Amino acid sequence: METNLSKMIPLASISSEKSKPVCIFGTGDFGRSLGCKMLQCGYSVVFGSRNPQASSLLPKGAEVLSHRDAAQKASIIILAIHRDHYEFLTGLTDVLEGKVLVDVSNNLKINQYPESNAEFLAKLIPKAEVVKAFNTVSAWALQSGTLDASRQVFVCGNDHKSKQMVVDIVRALGLTPLDQGTLLTSKEVENYPLQLFPMWRLPVYICTGLTIFIFIYCLITEVIHSYVVDREDNSFLIAISIPNRVFPIVSLILLALVYLPGIIASTVQLYRGTKYSRFPDWLDQWMLCRKQLGLVALAYAFLHVLYTLVIPIRYYVKWWASNYVISQIKSNHTYPFDTSYAWRGESYLALGILGFFFYLLLGITSLPSVSNMVNWREFRFVQSKLGYLTLILCTAHTLIYGGERFIYNTYFYKWYLPPAFVLSLIVPCIVLVLKFIFIMPCLDRTITRIRQGWERNSRYPKQSDKENGKPAV
Amino acid sequence: METNLSKMIPLASISSEKSKPVCIFGTGDFGRSLGCKMLQCGYSVVFGSRNPQASSLLPKGAEVLSHRDAAQKASIIILAIHRDHYEFLTGLTDVLEGKVLVDVSNNLKINQYPESNAEFLAKLIPKAEVVKAFNTVSAWALQSGTLDASRQVFVCGNDHKSKQMVVDIVRALGLTPLDQGTLLTSKEVENYPLQLFPMWRLPVYICTGLTIFIFIYCLITEVIHSYVVDREDNSFLIAISIPNRVFPIVSLILLALVYLPGIIASTVQLYRGTKYSRFPDWLDQWMLCRKQLGLVALAYAFLHVLYTLVIPIRYYVKWWASNYVISQIKSNHTYPFDTSYAWRGESYLALGILGFFFYLLLGITSLPSVSNMVNWREFRFVQSKLGYLTLILCTAHTLIYGGERFIYNTYFYKWYLPPAFVLSLIVPCIVLVLKFIFIMPCLDRTITRIRQGWERNSRYPKQSDKENGKPAV
Amino acid sequence: METNLSKMIPLASISSEKSKPVCIFGTGDFGRSLGCKMLQCGYSVVFGSRNPQASSLLPKGAEVLSHRDAAQKASIIILAIHRDHYEFLTGLTDVLEGKVLVDVSNNLKINQYPESNAEFLAKLIPKAEVVKAFNTVSAWALQSGTLDASRQVFVCGNDHKSKQMVVDIVRALGLTPLDQGTLLTSKEVENYPLQLFPMWRLPVYICTGLTIFIFIYCLITEVIHSYVVDREDNSFLIAISIPNRVFPIVSLILLALVYLPGIIASTVQLYRGTKYSRFPDWLDQWMLCRKQLGLVALAYAFLHVLYTLVIPIRYYVKWWASNYVISQIKSNHTYPFDTSYAWRGESYLALGILGFFFYLLLGITSLPSVSNMVNWREFRFVQSKLGYLTLILCTAHTLIYGGERFIYNTYFYKWYLPPAFVLSLIVPCIVLVLKFIFIMPCLDRTITRIRQGWERNSRYPKQSDKENGKPAV
């Protein structure tokens, strides 16, 4: 709720501080918003503009001068102008010498230019100190005070002192500066606001692929087969029944895929007898997107829960239930209560609920603000112990479901295809069996030693390592 | 979990630092808690008290002196006393000269005094530098170390250097300083801890109004009508059936109201041909509380989901279902399975589930810690693309529900009033139709250009704007 | 998403800054990762190693020297080595004089050594300034850039200036420094990463105890009793029915236990007539873990909701329902619709849903990032007002459920044991009755005055207190 506060703050014109003003080149949207915010936080601001007299929308309290005059007054100059217009700065080289130039620009496309805007600027005015900053902040957010998206400001630059001056401004504006190093990183910084969930790409691709495959598989075995063989129109199953088969299957496979790379990494380390050699790239990639994979799997599990809970409201199910009663009456034969069937049905549901519950716990602990409150031991406890518990519960849920179906229903193989849920059990079972092997004392001890820095073929005695640093595989 | 750590830290008496002590006037709750916390963080603290010898509850390691003696020892004096007692400070004017006075006071009511406490203090002791800080932090939180509510400390003051000294203390205590500018903003800062969800007020009012209206509407058409016309007592519908009609209807209207101001803003910009003129105040206000509107709508959608999922547990529904079967048997007539009806019923449920799912995703991304991790492009993608997808799904859900009801049930107009869900479709349909018009290439191109700073009636060539700064309307 | 950014940043070799390099002793996992990160952020790094020429895995851009040479080059030396190897540092006493030694070590067990590693180091090299830091950060997190768990770095040390130097490094690496005071606190800091949810221990113990007790209680009254008396095998109830009795009962008791300590505290304060005397330790402990108690209760409530919603899918329930219809037909007797029963059943469900909804709201506001956005007044409003509303709704939900059961079902006392839900009502009812007494004007006024600092037997006139600082009991 702090947001609306800063918005209502009157412009600070009577500031008692004597510090040199900050100069902003460019009176566009971003320049004005930034200037306004800086004035509110007690800075004195001078705008550099081509038409100093024509800038009616500028915040009160700010001076507007020509570029040259404005630059002379300040030691920090923020360039709120497009890269395309940087050329005109060459005419000001003399006044810009020794000043801190803050490049706030963004491009329209990732890697639009061969070099980053900030590096381009540094080449253009080699005698000024260029600092890249503020490019992740939006003018609208600065204006409205609602910093919903990122408060993080990436700062990079070659000169430590200049960078520190910019970092101080960032902090004074209530934003979070993150030092990214030298100008070499400016390309990354400039690409950042143009990215669209890069870490989610791989999980979403895997998930989409699996979804389509399982969907078609179920469509064939449940709709097309019955249409071709029995001439029955079951197409309405596409709305709920088939998604409710696809979601849990894909979810379980994805959950297993979260734990598979850890198993593979252990195998690799065990085989190599050291942890000091890099994993193959695909494994690194996979391990870094485990969190996202898990969250996609959780989303699917959530959908599975909702789709399951609406079952009794469905017309199809209600019609079937009343028909079932009617047929019992007509045949004058009531089915007796079957305790073992009840046990199976109920424990199948209970396992599913508990699995989903722990799944959700995992999801909640991966919220940034929650995971930031726990230490590494707690984080590993949750992600590893609770994670495997979830995987076991969900696999058991599927196994009992399968058992029930196999025995009591006529889900025989259609066109020689096994029921879809059988597919979902392959990866989880492999992961669980391997994990079970790896936690056997002999192997576990070796892996732990390897992770603590021990090497099988060590050439010289290792210097001690930090326990804390073992990977959370 | 870090919280309990700081609590258990022993008082640091043997601090090797030679820095000047910090003085605290007032040995009340807050003064003591702050002093204790500062001692823990390595500061040396001296209390100023009227009865230096009578203060038995003070933290160990702190000195207690008379006000005058204490003030002389320090360069920063924190005033943990009521505004009403500030007068006595005039007697200390000579020792307070040039010192930093930190005003931590709060009032009991918003705008209790014409001027803020800090400004009053600055007038009283004009030769001291007054800084407002710490008023948002509670004594209890400092004592217990459980900083559940705000870690944010708003700091304002006219002198940059004094402010920086206070900011350093705030940071050393593990709190987050937020520079709010000069003392002019102190009134806002003092009012802040007295506010009660100011951003939520408008959404809650709108929501309450709509809820009451729809509730009465449903009461009339479903309970009162049947009581007056058919002499049937359906009053028990008030518990679940009617809320389950009110919640989805209000939720859908509120969701549409989240996207309506964006549409209006586009229209205004398109009409004016520029984005450089302010929106009317009501539109600004509306746009700033869109997030809260959306969250209220999500809460209602969540209630709708729960109310819907308990349907099969309800006595009324169970009784009705068994009666339905019995009547079929008695009349010896079973209803055949209707595929088209199944399609409608199932897709209606599926759309609802998917709508709710994306709704929830929107809600999760509006959590501060999540939205802080995404960049503007990602935030806009989620809030705009996913938002409209949610609106489309929920509207389709309602439309199919409506279609089903109209055809298969006897929900004809009662007292010439259309069924309530018809009302819920008005705003969403308007929003979707307008949005559809605005994304047509010709209009979309113009709007994009306007948002990038282009003006239809520009007097002189615009200086370039930043792409990044376009509003997330 | 910022995480992957920092990972991809190239090593900054051409840094223009002239600042003294930072030295890292130890080329193990942690030393290397930290060095790499520091290089990325523009620091120049020199490693001290026993085998300077054998360190092939070190990050590019870093120098590797002998310990002595490396230490001489820097003013800050980070010791990424085990405590067991600290002894060799005594040989370097002359070069370490006046330098800042950063102890990053952790132990394998809590309180493994009588004194903390940092204090041990300070004794070993008394002429150096020891600062404890970085022990909560994992090498893997530094390497991969995915700082999922704690970004918080606890810093403690006796010398303010040395500490500040380390704090600056921490901040430059994009981590959050938290000043914990002098080296006296280093033991706490070292124990922190070894803790496993210390605040959750008490709530989990209470919850586990209650769960086991209620589970056995229900097992006796519902399974064993019917088996012994009626020879009926109801064991399948263990899967869903009994958990669905245990979860709500324990949840309600836990929720009441969240509010009981506040009531007790009020009573104590009222009895003593002052707030300036410490509560007994058990009460303090209890009050500090209220949030965790509440969250455990919420988890159980969530499980209760899921277990309830699957009711209509259960085989047992479906079988019973169809049998019910069949028996009605066979006896040719249909039960008429009972409005008062409908009212009870529906309002019982509605109260439960609303209770759960507010419960969830409470849970969401206790997320760190959300509670950090609200001020104390808002936090207290939510936690106190909404909390009691939740308690009232949930208690009413149970009462109506009880009423319904008592009247319509044959749940008579088995073996003289009352139904389990009766047990769940004891604590909530006590809390609600006491709270009701305490909010009566006469008592409420006294409590408020006490919390504002008033004392019944005050010896001398109190100095004014801060309103803001009243505890959120």
TrEMBL record, chains A, B, C:
Domain Ferric oxidoreductase positions: 249-383
Reactions the enzyme catalyzes: 2 Cu(+) + NADP(+) + H(+) = 2 Cu(2+) + NADPH; 2 Fe(2+) + NADP(+) + H(+) = 2 Fe(3+) + NADPH
Domain Pyrroline-5-carboxylate reductase catalytic N-terminal, residue spans: 22-107
Locations listed in the record: Endosome membrane
SUPFAM superfamilies from the UniProt entry: NAD(P)-binding Rossmann-fold domains
InterPro entries given in the database record: Fe3_Rdtase_TM_dom, NAD(P)-bd_dom_sf, P5C_Rdtase_cat_N, STEAP_metalloreductase
Topology term for the membrane: Multi-pass membrane protein
Keywords noted in UniProt: Copper, Endosome, FAD, Flavoprotein, Ion transport, Iron, Iron transport, Membrane, Metal-binding, Oxidoreductase, Transmembrane, Transmembrane helix, Transport
One GO-annotated biological process of the protein: iron ion transport
Family: Belongs to the STEAP family.
PANTHER family attached to this UniProt entry: DUDULIN-RELATED, METALLOREDUCTASE STEAP4
Protein name, as recorded: Metalloreductase STEAP4-like
Naturally occurring in which organism (per UniProt): Microcaecilia unicolor
